[in-house]
Amino acid sequence: MSTTVRLEPFRWWHVNEVLPIEADLFGAEQWSPAMFWNELANGHYYRVAVDADGTILGYAGLAGAPPDEVWVQNIAVRRDAQRRGVGRALLEDLLAEAARRGARNTLLEVAADNVAAQRLYAMYGFEPIGVRRGYYQPSNTDALVMQRVAEPTGNGPHDNG
């Protein structure tokens, strides 16, 4: 990765710092401060990627759906930091957390027209399993639902053998 990135827990004081990134990337479909606060209040796993100066380059979140499923809530990287491995670092961190939780299935929704993100997810074993028509509002953009199934470890409570 050409950018020096440090991943840290996403805390309440980061909300105002990520809002401009959210607005730039998602426009009318951006998350509100309350949506971020809700994610944090519910104890979901969120990380920020910061550079050497402490500037937030991106953020990502993961929500559990027990017993063995997690959902990638969002991954966002500032436009001027894209294509430098920041999104990949965030995704790898979320996948490591999913493994720590024993998640068999990791799912996400991605805009049907976001081919770059779909390619990244495919590199990590995500496959399309469905479409949510008109999911993103107000643009009425479809969401592609993608899933990654973890390899069985052989030592979990649901493993046979």
TrEMBL record:
GO terms for cellular component: ribosome. PROSITE patterns: GNAT. It comes from the Bacteria. Its EC number is 2.3.1.266. Pfam families: Acetyltransf_1 (PF00583). CDD domains: NAT_SF. The keyword Ribosomal protein applies. GO terms for molecular function: protein-N-terminal-alanine acetyltransferase activity. InterPro entries: AcTrfase_RimI/Ard1, Acyl_CoA_acyltransferase, Bact_Acetyltransf, GNAT_dom. Keywords: Acyltransferase, Ribonucleoprotein, Ribosomal protein, Transferase. Residues 5-151 form the N-acetyltransferase domain. The keyword Acyltransferase applies. This is Ribosomal protein S18-alanine N-acetyltransferase. It comes from Micromonospora profundi. The lineage of its organism: Bacteria, Bacillati, Actinomycetota, Actinomycetes, Micromonosporales.
